[in-house]
Amino acid sequence: MREGDRSFFKEPIIVMRERRLRVAIDGPAGAGKSSVARAVARKLGYTYLDTGAMYRAVALIAVQRGIPLDDPAALGEMARSLHITACEEDGVFRVWVDGVELTHRLRDPGTDKAVKFLAMHRPVREVLVEIQRSLAREGSVVMEGRDITSVVLPDAEVKVFLTADVRERARRRWQELQLKGVKISWEEVLEELIQRDRKDLERDWGKLVRVPDAVLVDTTGKTQDEAVAEILRLCEEKKIALRSH
Ligand code: DC
Question: Among 29, 122, 143, which residue's Cα sits nearest to residue 79?
Fold first, then answer.
């Protein structure tokens, strides 16, 4: 090709741009979603999003403002009026509401109790789903929760249902609490998890379901590293499949 030939300047440049995946992970409480999702995000260089933390932040504000947890309209209106931002910083998933950081209060016993009632209400869920979708718009995210594969990102490239036997989940949570010096029996932790599962399953909208195209990752008897490796393998397979399209 000679210089001066117009096509010389039009040589096609092939750029192999890596597809930005959205990785959606759902599962019951205590299955290890947060630590697994965070590790997957870190390995991929993606953003980690903990949607449970956002529900917790709204529950905390509702309790602070004395809004009844059985009033969907009032809770929805309150949620819509809040400016909620969230991101991971220094290895911690942080949430701000109206500019005030609430991260350190999201697991207070009062918030823990309130959130399962607040999360039942569709008007609240709609507000949070909207925010979560906007956070995932650019892709390159690993988002975990209960309704991510079914409602928030039903067209996510990678969908995972991460679970473990309820007795194993109770054992793990009990061990965590022991390390924190919380005095509670294993049976109490088990009962709390069973109740939490029931609440997650009985919502009309946004209940915990395994959608047909979500890959089941059962962490019973597995290490966290094994679960992370399984999800990373799914992501690699998806990237290869997308490249050949
Ligand atoms: O994952 P977690 O335990 O931090 O979640 C806190 C609460 O929020 C729990 O009651 C389930 C609910 N939740 C939800 O309903 N939908 C989500 N996407 C995430 C959490």
Answer: 122
pLDDT of residue 2: 52
pLDDT in tens, 30-44: 999 999 999 999 999
| Residue 209 structure tokens | 């379901």
CA–centroid distance, 176 to ligand 1, in Å, is: 19
Residue of 115, 121, 132, 193 best suited for mutating to test ligand 1, as the one with most atoms within 8 Å of CB:
115
SS (H, E, C) 132-185: HHHHCCCCCEEEEECCHHHHHCCCCCEEEEEECCHHHHHHHHHHHHHHCCCCCC
Q: What's the confidence (pLDDT) of residue 1?
A: 47
Among 1.10.8.50, 3.30.450.40, 3.10.20.90, 3.40.50.300, name the CATH number for the domain at 25-223: 3.40.50.300
- pLDDT cut 70: percent of the chain above it: 93
